[in-house]
């Protein structure tokens, strides 16, 4: 059974359909990639799915429950977490504290208990710290836990953001360009991490322009162009699809996608 079901999702900005009737599903243990040219509607689609935008049409379902229009913190409690296209880390805070900020998405905080430093609040903080250490370990960053984020390399920061999403205990992980700006070695590390997360049974949905990464790790690819889904299928089906080559891959991208197989 799919964990995430997107049906006929759409939104317009000033008369332009940024996302136009998109339907797809993402299964547990799978990596579903969303690809397409700049402006195709990929990030807008993520913003609709993760509750940042309210859709004009369609529905979002998690494990068969309709969660359309729910705000991000409720979706987080329902098991969905996401990262953003641009790094959103606090450079002066340690790697551990950065990951702990992810815990706030799912905590039912009690401000009075926090202010008074009551035992319940201290217990909650200790639990969050433990979960954050585990998420850092999962992302291969445990040795850097006490370092300020400003001392981490770019690739480590990209994995730190994934750790911050993982700490919520999510079953569905949305990653917006997780390897953007990474060199080949860093991309491989991100690739291994994502692959491992999917193998643990989570549904991973990612937006990515790096065709080698996409073709290597995707179970399933959805292609958008001008807000609409123009193709979907396994990597081998997508890399040979003439509509996808014409709209996005072009000759160069198709060769790059092919090289991922080599
Ligand atoms: N808040 C907004 N207001 C108006 N137009 C928007 C808004 N957000 C997105 N758009 C428009 O919607 C379209 C889709 O943009 P989106 O950022 O989703 O594309 P994308 O596929 O993620 O592109 P990229 O690969 O460059 O990140 C674009 O024409 C964009 O200008």
From TrEMBL:
Pfam families noted in UniProt: ABC_tran (PF00005), BCA_ABC_TP_C (PF12399)
GO molecular function: ATP binding; ATP hydrolysis activity; L-isoleucine transmembrane transporter activity; L-phenylalanine transmembrane transporter activity; L-valine transmembrane transporter activity
Domain ABC transporter, first and last residues per copy: 4-251
Matching SMART domains: AAA
Annotated keywords: ATP-binding, Nucleotide-binding, Transport
Family annotation (InterPro entries): AAA+_ATPase, ABC_AA/LPS_Transport, ABC_transporter-like_ATP-bd, ABC_transporter-like_CS, BCA_ABC_TP_C, P-loop_NTPase
Annotated transmembrane regions: none
Span of the signal peptide: none
UniProt protein name: Amino acid/amide ABC transporter ATP-binding protein 1, HAAT family
Origin species: Tranquillimonas alkanivorans
